[in-house]
Amino acid sequence: QLRGVVALDGPSGTGKSTVARRLAGKLGAGYLDTGAMYRAITVAVLRAGVDPSDDDAVAAIAERTDLHIGDSPAAAQVRIGDDDVTVEIRGPEVTLNVSAVSAVPRVRELMVARQRSIITDVVRRLGGIVVEGRDIGTVVAPDAPLKVYLTASADARAGRRTRQDAASGRNATIAETRKDVERRDRLDSTRTTSPLRPAHDAVELDTTALDINGVLNRLVGLLDERG
Ligand code: C5P
């Protein structure tokens, strides 16, 4: 049984989400997809017709968005009020705008506070939680006993994203996806507030040559080492 937090960070296309969900399922732990929270705020921003680069307007939307997110690996549903936005948050318009929204300091402050309270609650109930994102090891849960920073080559990441998109009915070429993935990583790693970077005590794991089971085995190995 997992005790405490496993922090999984890294750019998109590293297999983070699939691995985080599977690991949580295997351990009987909770699961939190923090990217889904920034995506949901982005949905609210777009619906309100607010310019994603207008920090104050974006912050105001984040303050009043009634966001709900599941904390189980089986059903990670995302809602705004009663409205299920689980599918909408994966849409291309959201993906295009989420980095601008997530760079707003007030948005991060609100989300990090929510994430910490969800983590506390789930750890109390289930003993442990796998949390995935960009700043989990550095900001959200700096005391996590296991922090892993997943990487993969740009080609591998673009390939995975393209296949994932195709599986959910969105068809883009690898070249387009690669541009999009690189653009988002650049924005996420250069923002002022909690940029994407490995925590000093994170284990870096290159997933380029590994499949999902390969990555899972490495994570389980790391957990075993830590007792
Ligand atoms: O993980 P996912 O690709 O769904 O994340 C979407 C976006 O949300 C990222 O590109 C990043 O801009 C933002 N994000 C973040 N901090 C997190 C998780 C996601 O800024 N902890």
TrEMBL record:
Q: Which reaction(s) does its UniProt entry say it catalyses?
A: dCMP + ATP = dCDP + ADP; CMP + ATP = CDP + ADP
Q: Where along the chain is ATP bound?
A: G10, P11, S12, G13, T14, G15, K16, S17, T18
UniProt-listed GO biological process terms: nucleobase-containing small molecule interconversion; pyrimidine nucleotide metabolic process
SUPFAM superfamilies (alphabetical): P-loop containing nucleoside triphosphate hydrolases
Q: Which residues form the Cytidylate kinase domain?
A: 6-222
Keyword terms of this UniProt record: ATP-binding, Cytoplasm, Kinase, Nucleotide-binding, Transferase
Any one of the GO CC terms: cytosol
User: In this record, what's one Pfam family?
Assistant: Cytidylate_kin
Q: What is its EC number?
A: 2.7.4.25
What is its subcellular localisation?
Cytoplasm
Record carries keyword Ribonucleoprotein = no
Example of a GO MF term: dCMP kinase activity
Family, according to the entry, reads as follows:
Belongs to the cytidylate kinase family. Type 1 subfamily.
Indicate what this protein is called per its UniProt record: Cytidylate kinase
Q: Which gene encodes it?
A: cmk
